[in-house]
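quick one
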Amino acid sequence: MLVERISEDSVSILTPAKVNLCLEVLNRREDGYHNINSIFQAVSLYDRVVFRVLHQKECRLELAREADLPVDGRNLITKAYVAIRDRFDLESGLEVYLEKNIPVAGGLGGGSSDAAATIRACNILFDLHLDRAGMSELGLAVGSDVPFFFSGGQAAVTGRGDHVHPISLPTDYWMVLITPPFGISSAESYAGLKRGLTMPAPDRYFSIYQGVEQLLEFLARSRNDFESVHLASHPELGRIKDGLLASGANFCRMSGSGPTFFGIYSGEPDRSKVRLCCQDCWQVNYAQPVCFGGKGN
Ligand code: ATP
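structure w/ adenosine-5'-triphosphate:
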């Protein structure tokens, strides 16, 4: 994420979406979560979140424009603040302005990214001196995908999302992300996974891929376990996949539990071709993979 300190009591953060380049859902754990094997890649589609210290112990959230999002205690920004307030006995609160650009419930981790940004902002504004592991631990209590957003933007993720192993992947390619106008709940996604789930197979993803060609070869051999489930029950997703491939994508896959599909292009995508292959009601975002350096990113 990209952090800008605006003043002593305010900070502005650009916090990215992620795509799951691949995703295997493994066994169900005793705590009810599933183990996963996934590669997460941050992409240049950002929510902008501005945080200002408030002298009351509460989180006041304002949206820059209308979005299908709760602004009360159900918002992951508020949940992250409350987790921190309770842990550190904070006397202060947050006024938060959210410019939501990442499609909601799209499989792009937008809520988790906002929660991670909130933890980062609290760390800065309230001098909490949390290191990356400390922020990740707090984040995990808010959501399984949150720890990834404290990484450098490229990671093999295992466990329920809590094991984030930094990896190095190429970034010299382009992506088109297409989100249809409906969401798919996690419950629906997991219910659809009828086949027997496998046990964890560690160390599968620890290679370093040298170039886009090798990455594409690897991706062709990997999978997203939710994709075939959702393609079978939502025909519109098949049209999105076909559209991305027709527009010149070298590779196409669903991200997370969907419904967003991403296309990978080794050259800059031709936007007029993409437009021709898209329906008006689909949300189209152009992005590139991004990495972040520096402490606490
Ligand atoms: P994941 O890929 O981690 O499963 P997602 O991208 O599919 O997540 P999100 O956009 O993170 O989904 O939203 C998941 C749910 O969280 C939605 O039902 C949404 O209403 C709720 N939510 C709460 N706070 C936020 C937020 N700040 N941004 C987005 N969604 C939020």
